[in-house]
Amino acid sequence: MNHNEKDGRRSGLSLIIKVSLIGGGFYLLLFGICAIPFSVAQREAGHARPQLQQHQQPTVRPAPSQGGQVDESVAWQNNAVHDGFDAASPLVPPLTLRWSRDLSANGVTSISYPLIAQGLVLVTTTGQANTFMALDENTGATVWSAAINGTYGFVNAAYDSGKVFVVNFDGLMKAFDAATGTLLWSVSLPGQYAFTSPPTAANGIVYEGGAGIGGTVYAVNETNGAVLWTMPVENGDHSSPAVVAGSVFVSYACPQSYAFNATTGQQLWHYSSCCEGGGGATPVVHAGQVYVRDDLCDQTSGLVLDANTGTVIGGFNSDRPPAFVGNLALYFQSGTLRGVENGQVLWSFAGDGQLTSAPVIVNQTIYIGSNSGTLFGLNTSGQQIWSTQVGAPIPAPDEHNATLTTGLGAGDGLLVVPAGHVLAAYGTLPTLTGAVSRKTHGAAGTFDIDMPLTGSSGVECRSGGATHDYSLVATFAGNVNVTGMPQSQVISGMGCVGTGGVCDPNGTVSVSGNIVTVPLTNIADAQVINVQINGVNGAGDEPAVNVNIPMGILIGDVNGNRAVNASDVALTKSQVGQNVGAGNFREDVNANGTISSTDVAIVKSDVGTALPP
Length: 613
Ligand SMILES: [Ca+2]
Ligand SMILES: [Ca+2]
Hints:
The chain is elongated. Strands 38, 39, 41, 44, 45, 46 and 47 form a seven-stranded antiparallel sheet that branches. Strands 3-31-32-33-34 form a five-stranded mixed sheet, with no helix packed on it. By secondary structure, the chain is mostly beta strands. It has four helices and 49 strands. The chain has a domain at 432-606: Immunoglobulin-like. One calcium ion binds next to helix 3.
């Protein structure tokens, strides 16, 4: 069932601020027009509630700091502080599509923000079928799935330490073993009946907000589902708790914002605004400050609060949770992303005019999606450095209605993008980081000659024996497979892949982790060849690339200046009888482990040869 069709009641939450004169003072009451009955009920009940707790003195504790430095996505906006920043990712654009799942055949219309950890991408879906799915991050294949039950048929999810936690609208929280999908426990959160808040899990505790009669923040033991503490709040909708440095921060409409001791639930502060009511937006904690939105009482749509005291420091305008990289704040308002530092707007980016998603920062690149289906990558100066078409509109996160929350996520070297019924994962192609020509010099050891990938080629000055054999060793940034046929080939120059004078039509290489070794034979002297490794990828189902490695061969050019002359003869003579080591192995031209008159004779015989510049 489509929840929007079956429930027009919460199709949009229009807010009216009404001024009432009660007891000689002005109070702003919030009412939702066309909002769901629970919101009305909670507001009516909330209005009748006793006074809020007095502000409590904050306890001294470490200043909140940035989220974890693990390349994982564990909550909405990637981490438990919701700052959208994955500093631990190695990703650098251009990104390449690793896999894409079109779930429309399964009746899926919306896909949540991804959790990415331990080789899995975990998402919840809604549409005709409502499912919590764990996908293989290398292939996108479903590893396990669980049906979603409950009112409106959606859940939001969080990850911590091998477990995933989901909460449905009715407050049924479940924990699954992330690897297997085994249900570990479930608990009905008591006292409320409307749960729209994406949970946050950290340090053994799952945090969740619930609404209904007023609002409640819950802390649940990740191990057994026991409710550790609850605290009353105004009013518990939508906003995902932010957790850092022993504190949990929540913020609801107006805003009504709170900090609690994460372990005990003790209220540390409460910022009370001019109104209260249904709704709320996820707070972001960055550099000791809490960024809260849904401000209906000030000139800006957001406030910056001191994380230790709840004191107002300033304001900001952002329709989405702000994201942060270092001192740069990313605010998204009215379709434009702005980079702000020290209150100054440094740049703005409107993309194709249809930007929608909350921004995330992966490594040092900002990603934001568009309703056109375009995913943009920007540098921290706001310049577009990459874009791709995901294949379906990238939706805005819905922080107002009873539905799943969507957004981008980064982890395990991937950027995962939910776009309507499409889930796409982007990574980088295998990167060749270097290559060497390797020979073993008898008992003296193995020595490498660098083969630069750009600029002038390296110069292999050692002879290849009777069949002119060499060994080219390529190093990649990560583990690779070589899937091409032939696996490798000499695409220019005289020689072939093979050994002992026998060319191998399959171009067989040996692969060990991130190292690929290409055996070469019949390699003529005094030339630069080009060796190509075909079909290199990070996993069997990923896009592959061919890589090319230039290799210069000039036997006897012991000083590597691309010509063999008297200088090379003199240099070799000077090393005769010396132990072969890293400083003189080039003079062991026949690579037998000693430098002798034989090597001098080889160099002499090659005088007059040269490589092209
Ligand atoms: Ca030379
Ligand atoms: Ca020698």
